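>> received
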Amino acid sequence: MADSLQRLGLNHLNHKLKVRRGGIEVTNGNISGSSTSTGSFGKLEVAGNTTLTGDITIGGNMTLGDADSDSISISADLTSNLIPNADNTFDLGSSAKQWKDIYVNGIGYIDQLGTDGDAVAAYISSGEIDGTVIGGESAAAATFTTVTTSGNVSGSSTATGSFGRVQTAGDINTSGRVFENNTSVIDHATAMAIVFGG
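>> returned
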């Protein structure tokens, strides 16, 4: 018996040892082995706390925890990518249990950006958007309180725009007409006549 245990790398047994059909059961205490030898088990069950020291390699599928009341604490840093098993399948957090802040020092590749109120729209209520083309692929209506530009404001020749007030310290250059209340006040055909009040 002792020779068989030594071949498994089990050199020291404390307390009670039971040998049953199909396995060995230690009812109290520890099983320790040599740090230079190996042991082989078809199945290992531990009913108490376990402390493992050294590098660990586990092959096969793994299940950590059997209920959402279990928790996992990771003190170590990850030294590899965190890649899901299937594309567009698993979530990171949920509507009831959300992650707080995300720190990304790179590019965020997000197919769709939304909020709790609208899963298909993005609401940005403060801050700045710099160096960005808005509506470059799919143009839509925009509402502003103030538009300040150091360049040009241009629009489609077939669409219309509405402003409460247009103020400029430079020139207004148009190849068409300027209207007030749907009445032309500046018209190339009339030698740029300016008419106030219609």
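>> Helices lie at 2-7.
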